[in-house]
Amino acid sequence: VQVLQSGGGSVQSGESLRLSCIVSGRTSGESSMGWYRQAPGHRCEVVAMLKPDGTAYYTDSVKGRFTISQDDAKTTFYLQMDSLKLDDTATYYCAAPAGPPRCTTGYSSGAWWGQGTQVTVSS
């Protein structure tokens, strides 16, 4: 299984970014995935998760601003981030399947993780 992230960058407060995550090589059945982030000095946290039935979970701080989605093949996942705030600055990771927050790369605790991408929001 390979997980490849793209997107991210530096924006000003109020602007938008979209992160993408391509998951390849996964066997049939498992289709959940999650987005996570870790800011310097902070613990890794779940940002959003997409369950196999298509329902989404969002951490409270991003509700109404972030949207998690997937393509029809369930191999590419997105995190649309609107109305970005300074507190959204962090390294963002995707992982498949969704699970506990680790903010790591490679394979860990039953999940495959992307390489991480930096999102920086400035005023």
Q: Can you walk through the features of this model?
A:
- Helix content is 0%, strand content 50%.
- The chain has 123 residues and is an all-beta fold.
- The N and C termini lie far apart (38 Å).
- The mean pLDDT is 94.
Short précis:
This protein is mostly beta strands and 123 residues long. It contains no helices and 12 strands.
Distance between the termini: 38 Å
Question: Into which percentage range does the β-strand content fall?
Answer: over 45%
Residues in helix, %:
under 10%
Question: How many DSSP-defined strands?
Answer: 12
| Count of discrete alpha- or pi-helical segments spanning 4 or more residues | 0
Point out poorly predicted stretches: none
- Counting copies of identical and different chains, the oligomeric state is single chain
Structural class: mainly beta
Overall geometry: globular
User: Can you write the helix and strand succession as a string?
Assistant: EEEEEEEEEEEE
Overall residue-averaged pLDDT value: 94
The rounded Rg comes to 13 Å
Report the major sheet.
Answer: 8 strands, mixed
Chart the SSEs and their pairings:
Elements: E1 2-6, E2 9-12, E3 17-24, E4 33-38, E5 45-50, E6 56-58, E7 66-70, E8 76-81, E9 90-96, E10 106-108, E11 111-113, E12 117-122
Parallel strand pairs: 2-12
Antiparallel strand pairs: 1-3, 3-8, 4-5, 4-9, 5-6, 7-8, 9-11, 9-12, 10-11
Structural key phrases:
123 residues; mainly beta; eight-stranded mixed β-sheet; four-stranded antiparallel β-sheet; 12 strands; 0% helix; globular
